[in-house]
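Hello again,

I reread your note about wanting to compare the complex against the isolated chains. To keep things tidy I'm splitting this into two emails, and this first one only covers the full assembly. Below are the input lines as submitted, including protein chains and any nucleic acid or small-molecule components. They are followed by the predicted structure of everything together. The single-chain runs will come separately.
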Amino acid sequence: MTRRRAALLLPAAAVWAVVAWLLWRSSLSAYHLPHLDEHALFPADALHHAQHFSSFERLFWLGRTVAQLVVLGLFARYGVRWMRESAAGPIGTGMLLGMIGFAFVWAAELPFSVLNIWWRHHYGLSGSYAQATIGNWFALGVQFVLLCVALAIVMGLARARWIGERWWLLAAPVFVGLRVLLAFVSPWLLGGTALHARYVTTLERTEHVHVPVRVLSGFSEPNAFATGLGASRRVFLWKPIVEPPFTPRMDRFVLAHELGHLAHNHIWRSIGWYALFAFPLAYLLAVTTRRRGGIGVPGAVPLAIFVYVVLQIVALPLQNVVTRHLEAEADWSALRATHDPGAGRQLFRLFGSETLDDPSPPWWDYVFLENHPTLMQRIEMTRYYATTVRGHVHP
Amino acid sequence: MHNPHPVRLVVEDDYRRSRLTVFFRLLLAIPHFIWFFLWTVWVVITGFVNWLISIFTGRPPSWFHGVMCGYVRYQAHLAAYLSLVADPYPGFMGEAGTYPVDVQLPEEPVTQRRWTIGIRLVLFIPALLVSSTLGGLTGGNLGSSRGKKRNATGGGTLLLACAFLGWFASLARGRMPKGLRDAGAYAIGYTAQATAYLLLVTDRYPNADPTEMLLAVTDRPPRHPVRVAGDPYDLRRSRVTVFFRLLLALPHILWLVLWGIIAFLVAIVQWFVTLFSGTPARPLHRFISAYIRYRLHVAAYLMLVANPFPGFTGAPGVYPLDLEVEGPQRQNRWKTGFRLLLAIPAFIVDTALSGSLFAAAVLTWFYALVKGSAPWGLRNLSAYALRYDAQTNAYLYLVTDVYPHASPLEGDSTEA
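Full-complex prediction:
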């Protein structure tokens, strides 16, 4: 590494670290969760069910990931041969190669998707074979369009003479801008029906967030999410979570959690983290594709896609650390807003039996797959709240 | 090059039509409908016996062959009469050489592979699909109880469109337009080949190539300012891109929609310019031409008429199936003023052809996945449909005031 490059990289790393520290800061001060015994919290058969179900789910993920890497690795090596199937110029050819790469990935993942549905049915969970096959086929089409947009931006910039090899410096902000735009626009596209419950107004007052709360139909699993920026901020609850066996008390906790995300600007902070990852990722893409003439050359696209996916997998543990941190803060926010750790505990126990999530998964699952705290950690946090802020605990 | 198909179309029509018989054509054909129905019942029965015998002998008996040939010819005569592809009242026996639109058939029965005879009905399905979009074989031969309307007209979408438009044109001018006549004759020719295949007159699969069907029997139309250029033998297809073709084309489809919105607005401006100055503005002409060319490239890619992924700019000379567009010429103001209304007949034919295009694309998809190439006939049928679509759009968007030519033959000497 040249001195000049080191001289540039060091301040950049310092800036990165400072921004990461700023984004990491949380309303949740340092805490030590009490250790609880999962066998005392979950019935033995439910625990066994969840663990057995999750163990195969992990295997499916592992299979899918390995298949994806093998296919993209081979495609990086041999994918260039499909260049002859294009009359579209360099950028269009790059798009074609990118799409073919992901088409192969789709084909390789298909057996795992079908197996996964079979496994879910085996455990009485919902899942549609049509969705896993034909539905995924259409999803692949959407993926193709997004991929083409991304490649058009990246290759267009990389081919621009005035920026050349430093395309990544401009590409990263462009993608961050697109992410902001998507976050702003998407809530309006989702629809849903308004949730009319007494606790909505109370919670909004407590969390100092006043946003529409909407219920989305068409889902078979309990879930909720907060999204949007500024005027488009919304909380969406999937219908199953507002229906039995979930109680209004639990729903109140869920809503408080989602409002907590908005109250602590988690959407903006997620975008900030995205930006922090986007710059080094784009830089590494630029470096790795240099040997094939740079990303502006269509022949480099198969390699670029492979590198991109590998980097995504490598960055997964870091990203999960970040999201778990944000989710923990939202949990804490919900506890402070509701003063109802009992509702939280019941909610998370119910999640265990409804979604068959393993309450305490193995370490590698935790590192690569868990973007929320585990169910045990979340229950432990309710206990932590109950013991440290005892005076506010509801009976 | 291919060997000529044993079932050949003969066209000796002079385009002239008697207005009186044109006006009453459907009523005049009533005796033929009855006769055709009876003959169809007879052919269903004898055809089954013929099939059973042929499975064992590998060759249809001469008597049965004669019956089937007569039926194929009679069907062609009747379809030609009904769709105004020919003018004289046809005979009832389907005799050879007695009608201006005729079909030459093998005089003697030919030995055929037994297994193809055994599963002839299954093998016939793709031809039926194409035929039903061109000549409406389903109405005529495969059970007249299904779809009485189709049976009554003897036509599928293209033939029906030609008949419908030809009726008005013939009444007005006393002549059948060449484009419609040729398109109708092509549909009749393909249907005859398909029927002959089904009825074991030949074991040669119907060939949808319009050039081979028509070039020997009719003249090319005049040179059109909007032409499709491409190698008709460009048949190699990549199986991977064929399998994912619809998804791979998605970015193009989105881009085409966006471009289409702009092109529509530009066309409105161009309409005013052409109406007042008499000549389209060159920059707008260039822009719209690029749009129409891009539309052709995308459709060719999507419908498997060409193999490579097209570019996004509609640039000329870079795609195997390309559009040649002449520069802006002076246009008739009347034609410009009423362009939208005038384009309606072209849209009817275009819609009819898009059915054939779709059927050809579906069949080509399966074929190309297996063989890694496109079938020659279907490729060229699709090229014809795309060329007509491009000419229709060029007419509508004021690129030219020359009306789209419905003839399956490309004008001048350029082949699609």
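For quick reference: The beta strands of chain A are 86-87, 193-194, 213-216, 224-227, 234-238.

B.
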